[in-house]
Amino acid sequence: xxxxxxxxxxxxxxxxxxxxxxxxxxxxxxxxxxxxxxxxxxxxxxxxxxxxxxxxxxxxxxxxxxxxxxxxxxxxxxxxxxxxxxxxxxxxxxxxxxxxxxxxxxxxxxxxxxxxxxxxxxxxxxxxxxxxxx
Length: 134
Description:
- By secondary structure, the chain is mainly α.
- The protein contains 4 helices and no strands.
């Protein structure tokens, strides 16, 4: 559950940054403005699902897609541009969003791997129990 909480927080940070940037003027940019609002709303929904809908693969998969798509859109914007927007790798909000998206991706991959092992019957770790003789 701790990993799901961490992933939810990471997704929420990205959502909050995109909401803040939307409020700061990105809302008026064609295609990007609606995408930022969608990111903010989807991030909140995904974070809630991660915490509430436990032991199901769909919320982590949604969080993975969220992180990859959001980070991918930023990298595209920072390299070749996205709908006429050319971002740079500078500023608090840019770095906060990028770090939170990387954290979300890494943590969610760990969650999915753990849940796959649990469902497939592969033990998470081998435990050796040594019992003393009385």
